[in-house]
């Protein structure tokens, strides 16, 4: 099936794929094109992609002047990093215990992990919101990060991974006098790098792109995440200045897309492997 | 001597460690357990309780209303519209994005050229900021200045007000949903295709299977059965959670024509602060997702046996 066929025989396949890919990439191409067009060209509704008069500096300039772009991107980084650090710090020791230690209550604990996998993040949202509101913690990084510090999926994933690690490695470390906690951080985690990378990509993509939760707990501009930032700008402008709007969309989308293009194989692995549980 | 001591030590260890191991294990699991209780278990149970109250944020107290919220929902035309819209959306997005994912996977798998490139291009929507891409779509679908209608005008067709007309808004959101999900399904199908043993194709060829279509019907499709069921469920669960595009582009409008479950839950709970009512919607949403997940777990179990 996968023999190297002559280019001519392979051509129909490549043509169909190229046409389909062109449709899939079209929104990105138009977004980029419009972000460099002046308003009059945008409103002329021509099908020309390239601007006749380059207006990119003005469009991007307007975005950077009116929107705290750096602030939004930094918020995105802080929130994603904060969530990831807690998720790993909480999930790895628990997953190690579930995979390698024989203890009372292990089956119950694992049962709860499996149960947690069935609960979408929207379910605890209302009670957590009420608690945050009562505690006066809305509009804070804590509100953005806290609900996602525990990832049952991370526990599940790391447990699967740790189970395949040889017991001898852990026994040897114990004989060397390491405590179980230092075994987790010094022996187990460094060996779990593939699982950790995959999970990190999954987690960062999910939370960088999340709109639901930030929309609920953030109501003032300076704590907006990139998703919220684009929405604010769109609502302010009421969609009137498409050039600047597309420029803001490009700026907020660029970091992840660039990372994806740079390490696409890892991204695809991470998102599909872990995305199985959404 | 030393060796013997070590062996004795290791042999004695399990029995001695058991009690100690339980303590260490719970210590290791403690942070995760506490966070689980605080962020998942207690709030989820609280949600179930809330669903049977008339609690509103800011109100001095609340009353038990029993099944009141649910009977109100069954008579709430906005909610029923929302459920119907979500069902329509899922019934459109899931089958089409699965079929498209499979078709593209077969095309990519059909040769060696451009594999990584095409895979990356189709996967791009999966990693992109949905809100930003939704605004890009709002430009493309714009009735007067959008390139889609410009293209249609060029061939003499009158385009529609894609996102502004109650007749086309769900279709347009569905197309965006398909665009978002197809690349994800494509990658799952590629994995499924690679797992099909090559000798099966050779055997089929010896049995006189010649055309690509016959090869698909006799070998690929039956072998891909478990993967397909699995992808269908995953896509359904992803599609039923549609929220970002609706919140960005239509706010459920026009005239509730694009109102979907999570957006209704969001507006009832966080715009009108009718927490009890919103909790009841969330509970129904959870039931729907759980049924899908249970089916999915069944399928995964079966997939293991296919091996």
Automatic annotation (TrEMBL), chain A:
Membrane is among the record's keywords: yes
Annotated localization: Cell membrane
One of the protein's GO biological processes: transmembrane transport
Cellular component aspect of the GO annotation: plasma membrane
Record's bilayer topology term: Multi-pass membrane protein
CDD domains, alphabetized: TM_PBP2
Keywords: Cell membrane, Membrane, Transmembrane, Transmembrane helix, Transport
Transmembrane segments: 12-33, 72-96, 108-132, 138-162, 183-205, 245-263
InterPro entries in UniProt: MetI-like, MetI-like_sf
Chief location bin: membrane
All residue ranges annotated as the ABC transmembrane type-1 domain in the record: 73-263
Superkingdom assignment: Bacteria
Family listed: Belongs to the binding-protein-dependent transport system permease family.
Protein name per the record: Sugar ABC transporter permease
Organism: Prosthecodimorpha hirschii
TrEMBL record, chain B:
BP GO annotations: transmembrane transport
Superkingdom of the organism of origin: Bacteria
Protein keywords: Cell membrane, Membrane, Transmembrane, Transmembrane helix, Transport
Record has GTP-binding as a keyword: no
Membrane topology: Multi-pass membrane protein
Record field: transmembrane: 24-52, 87-108, 120-140, 169-196, 216-240, 275-295
Broad class of the protein's primary localization: membrane
Cellular compartment(s): Cell membrane
Pfam families attached to this UniProt entry: BPD_transp_1
InterPro entries assigned to the protein according to its UniProt record, in alphabetical order: ABC_transporter_permease, MetI-like, MetI-like_sf
Domain ABC transmembrane type-1: start-end pairs: 83-296
Gene Ontology CC, one term: plasma membrane
Similarity comment text for this entry: Belongs to the binding-protein-dependent transport system permease family.
Protein name: ABC transporter permease
Species assigned in the record: Prosthecodimorpha hirschii
Lineage of source species: Bacteria, Pseudomonadati, Pseudomonadota, Alphaproteobacteria, Hyphomicrobiales
């Amino acid at each position: 099936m996968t023999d190297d066929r002559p280019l001519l025989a392979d051509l129909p396949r490549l043509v169909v794929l190229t046409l389909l890919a062109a449709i899939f990439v079209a929104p990105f191409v138009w977004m980029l094109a419009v972000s460099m067009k002046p308003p009059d060209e945008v409103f002329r509704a021509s099908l020309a992609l390239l601007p006749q008069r380059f207006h990119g500096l003005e469009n991007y300039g307007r975005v950077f002047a009116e929107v705290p772009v750096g602030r939004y991107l930094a918020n995105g980084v802080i929130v994603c990093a904060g969530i990831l650090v807690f998720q790993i710090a909480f999930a790895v020791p628990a997953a190690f215990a579930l995979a390698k230690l024989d203890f009372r209550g292990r089956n119950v604990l694992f049962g709860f992990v499996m149960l947690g996998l069935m609960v979408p993040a929207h379910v605890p949202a209302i009670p957590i919101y009420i608690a945050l509101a009562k505690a006066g913690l809305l509009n804070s990084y804590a509100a953005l990060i806290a609900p996602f510090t525990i990832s049952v999926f991370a526990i599940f994933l790391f447990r699967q991974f740790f189970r395949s690690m040889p017991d001898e490695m852990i026994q040897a470390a114990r004989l060397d006098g390491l405590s179980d906690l230092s075994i987790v951080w010094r022996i187990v985690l460094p060996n779990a790098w593939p699982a950790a990378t995959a999970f990190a990509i999954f987690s960062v993509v999910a939370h960088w792109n999340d709109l639901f939760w930030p929309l609920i707990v953030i109501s003032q501009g300076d704590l907006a995440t990139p998703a919220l930032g684009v929405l604010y700008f769109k609502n302010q402008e009421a969609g009137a200045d498409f050039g600047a709007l597309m420029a803001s969309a490009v700026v907020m989308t660029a970091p992840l897309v660039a990372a994806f293009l740079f390490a696409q194989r890892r991204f695809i692995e991470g998102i599909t492997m872990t995305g199985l549980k959404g | 001597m030393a060796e013997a001591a070590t062996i004795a030590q290791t042999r004695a260890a399990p029995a001695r460690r058991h009690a100690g191991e339980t303590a260490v294990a719970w210590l290791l699991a403690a942070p995760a357990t506490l966070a689980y209780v605080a962020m998942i278990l207690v709030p989820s149970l609280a949600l179930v309780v809330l669903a049977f109250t008339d609690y509103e944020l800011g109100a001095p107290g609340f009353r038990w209303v029993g099944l009141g919220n649910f009977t109100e929902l069954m008579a709430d035309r906005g909610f029923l519209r929302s459920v119907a819209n979500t069902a329509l959306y899922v019934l459109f997005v899931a089958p089409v994005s699965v079929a498209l994912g499979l078709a593209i996977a077969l095309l990519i798998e059909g040769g060696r050229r451009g594999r990584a490139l095409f895979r990356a291009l189709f996967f791009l929507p999966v990693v992109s900021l949905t809100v930003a891409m939704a605004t890009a779509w709002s430009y493309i679908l714009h009735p007067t200045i959008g390139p889609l209608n410009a293209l249609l005008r060029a061939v003499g067709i009158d385009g529609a007000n894609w996102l502004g007309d109650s007749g086309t808004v769900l279709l347009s959101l569905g197309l965006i949903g398909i665009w978002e999900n197809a690349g994800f399904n494509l990658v799952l199908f590629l994995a499924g295709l690679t797992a099909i043993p090559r000798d099966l194709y050779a055997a089929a060829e010896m049995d006189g299977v010649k055309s690509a279509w016959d090869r698909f019907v006799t070998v690929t499709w039956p072998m891909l059965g478990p993967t397909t069921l699995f992808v269908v469920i995953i896509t359904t669960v992803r599609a039923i959670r549609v929220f970002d595009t609706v919140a960005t582009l239509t706010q459920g409008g026009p005239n509730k024509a694009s109102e979907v479950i999570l957006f209704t839950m969001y507006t009832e709970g966080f715009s009108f602060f009718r927490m009890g009512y919103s909790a009841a919607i969330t509970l129904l949403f959870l039931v729907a997702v759980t049924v899908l997940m249970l089916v999915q777990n069944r399928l995964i179990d079966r997939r293991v046996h296919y091996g």
